[in-house]
UniProtKB/TrEMBL annotation:
GO terms for MF: ABC-type transporter activity; ATP binding
Localization: Membrane
Name of the protein described by the UniProt record: ATP-binding cassette sub-family A member 7
Chain segments annotated as transmembrane: 29-52, 64-84, 96-113
Membrane topology field: Multi-pass membrane protein
Span of domain ABC-2 type transporter transmembrane: 2-114
Signal peptide positions on this chain: 1-17
InterPro entries: ABC2_TM
Keywords: ATP-binding, Membrane, Nucleotide-binding, Signal, Transmembrane, Transmembrane helix
CC terms in the record's Gene Ontology section: membrane
Length: 121
């Protein structure tokens, strides 16, 4: 876990160096650090437990990577589009949003998106 924390610190230093809007103040960087720290507590044990389902490490890695892409990107984009005002599906989007929170990568995407919205408004 300490290696993960060092990686987070490098990520925060990179964000601080580029001084992008919404990702540069101490408060915003602190929120990103906390989000990534909590994400590590959720994601690393889940990955460890799921690794026992596979006999071949290479195929297990590929399958977990595909699962992570699916739960992190596709679920986030689906909920984002359902919550869009142009569609009349906000209730469905809110329900799926809460249901998908059990997936750490969806929660990470959602938290970083909310952090960006909070810092720009």
């Amino acid at each position: 876990y300490m290696t993960y924390i060092v990686t987070i610190l490098f990520y925060i230093a990179t964000l601080a160096a580029f001084q992008e809007d919404g990702w540069s103040s101490g408060e915003e960087l602190g929120r990103v650090f906390l989000i990534l720290l909590v994400f590590g507590f959720a994601f690393l044990p889940l990955t460890y437990l799921l690794s026992f389902r596979f006999d071949v490490p290479a195929s297990g890695f590929v399958k977990l990577m595909l699962l992570n892409i699916f739960t992190g990107i596709i679920f986030f984009m689906a909920v984002f589009l359902l919550l869009f005002d142009g569609f009349d599906l906000q209730d469905v989007g809110r329900g799926l949003e809460w249901g998908f929170m059990i997936f750490p990568l969806f929660a990470l995407s959602h938290a970083l998106s909310n952090n960006n919205v909070a810092s720009t408004t």
